[in-house]
Amino acid sequence: MVRWGHGRRLWAGLLVLATALFGGVGAAQATLALTPQQSAWIAQQQGKVFSVGFDPYAGMDSFVLQGKRQGLLHLLLQDMAQETGLRLVPADSKDWDAAYQRFVGGKSDILYGANPTPEREAIMRFTAPVVRYPYVTLARKASSVQTLADIHAKRVGFIENDFVQQALPQAYPNLHFESVTYSDQLVALQALEAGRIDAFVTSGGGVEVEYLVAHPQLAVVAQLRAITSDMTLAVALDQTELQGILQAYISQRQDAIARLARQARQIYNRKALQLSPAELDWLEHVGTAVVGAAEDYLPFDYQSKGQYKGIAGETLQAIADTVGLKLTVVSAPFAKIMDAARAGQVHVVNMAKTEDRLKDFIFPHPFSTERDIVIGRKTSPPVSDIYALDGQRVAVIEGFWHEEYLRKNLRQPHIVTTADILESLRKVRDGEADYLIENPTVVEYYINGLGYQDLAKRGETSGDSALYFGVSRTQPELAGIMDKVIPLLSFEELKYRGLQTVPAVENEANRRLLWLAALLTLALAAIVTLTAVMARKLTNERLSNQFLREREQLLYTDVLTGFFNRNHYSAHIAALEQSMALPAAVVVADLNNLKRANDAYGHAVGDELLRLFAQQMRTQWPQATGYRMGGDEFLMVLEGADPQAVQGQIDALLARCAQTPLVLDGGVTLRPSAAIGFSIRTERDSTMDQCVARADQHMYEAKVRQKKRSTDHMAT
Questions:
Q1: Does the N-terminal or the C-terminal CB of the chain have fewer CB atoms within 10 Å?
Q2: Nearest 5°: CA angle at 447, between 444 and 449?
Q3: Cα(first)–Cα(last) distance of the chain, in Å?
Q4: For the segment 366-380, what is each residue's pLDDT rounded down to a tens digit?
Q5: Last residue within a domain, chosen from 465, 487, 519
Q6: How far is CA 710 from CA 569, 624, 675, 705, in A?
Q7: What are 484-532's pLDDT values in tens digits?
């Protein structure tokens, strides 16, 4: 953390700079829609300087980087001055308590970041929050506290006078813990590291990144989205016009505020990550990385309209968003991408780390530590380790590291070279190869999507098969930046997000059925044409229409649940966006423990769970449009929904599921449960994809909250 000891001269400089930038009242062209009284009040403030008090240790709001104090507050003050014509400067305060007392004592005009309380509202007027920062819970990585629920009966640290001490028990009344207060965050973090407390609850605002970098043995185990630090602007009770002007700014500049917040967070992250002067200079003067996206390596690499998508693409975008990095994407087969990378034309490639690549590439921390697995036919013998593949035919994609790995470790390697993962899978299925080696996420994506149920995991590799981004040795600063960001990212979250951006794999069995249906259609049309060209024209039309309905049913309906499928959603979403009655609710559900049920009792039982859950959703929302998006994922569109009632309906659905058993032979009882999230669409300008993405995020948060809860397991 940056201390405030040498801030007096800095503040004097800032005051001069602010005067030069902002000038007097009316120097900037005000663009806000203000009342005549507000405009007249501003005109009366000629020559007045409004000082703004704030917490100098409030994360991205205000911080020092390379000797310059900057942050969201300073960007906001500049934008406010330009939009209102008021002359606004930050006040000089050593800490939050000093800033607060200075405001209460009338020595500053505006206070930034105070949460409204009954006591404060007796002496202040508050605007709506400029931004909201969720509180976070930190704990030791190796401790028993891994979720918010785990703080029950534990010692929990707080900052003195932080309102979260009262808000947390109110929001979670079933959590009981011992509160321990500290004078500042540094002391609390030291106590957490030393084991004197089990968790520490504090405001977010990006400052948690700095905590995690300085204390790598700690982790954020929960974000308290129900409890936020509201960064309001407060004025004295008699300053009605000033409060109204500030509120008008907040209401009318939401997009600009969001943009300034992203900019401030990215710059603050550079400080929190302790980027070196060389890395900061690279971001400032270069700031763009050329990324190679290999073709046909789903779900990790996928390029669409110049954007790098898939899991690797989402990971790189998360890195870029963290520090304000720009990405330029090029796409080609993997071998050509590697040639361009070795020539310095491509800077970053998703690749495996091998000895021969170390001379050309720097490898930051891996973004996935999944170990590659050996895939074969279900009838193939299991593989105890990599050496059991000696003499076996192993399908390997051309240019991939597996060939080098096999030739290095096996006495008699038998490599079957393929162009892509699809060819490798087909060669194993057709008996042209015995096994293939691949990342488990890739295998899961293709085997489930294609319906290759005759293939299965037969063993694991014994080497380092983690996934890395190889960075050209011509870009050491970029490699250093990525090395500092990657450990802070969640692979599971990025995997989930990345899978939503890649196209669904077409099931080959369904494709064959479609071809058969098409052939039958042609045959039927020929018979009808030959036998009743003229006399039975009406009958021909009827049969043709019937076929089209059946074909559409086959194309667009999930036969297991009777819901529409992803194909129907993709084909009709544009029309639905324009026609749906607003407000509409988009509900996303992910059935829990489907894989566990399949593994324990067979896929027939898993199918029954899916059908049972779909029935309960249809009972809850009989007029809604339902989709089974694939696997255990469901989507419901509730047109004309009451936004206030949706959460209650979801709770009712979950309660109904809990009371709806599936009884198996032997007395085993299963009950469907799910993680569910929703979003509300109120305007035509908001797309369904945006609504689904928000609902997905809420569903993911619900799944995280459900983790380790006893109600989330299969009852027996």
A1: C
A2: 95
A3: 52
A4: 999 888 999 999 999
A5: 465
A6: 34, 31, 14, 12
A7: 999 999 888 899 999 999 998 876 555 565 666 677 778 777 777 776 6
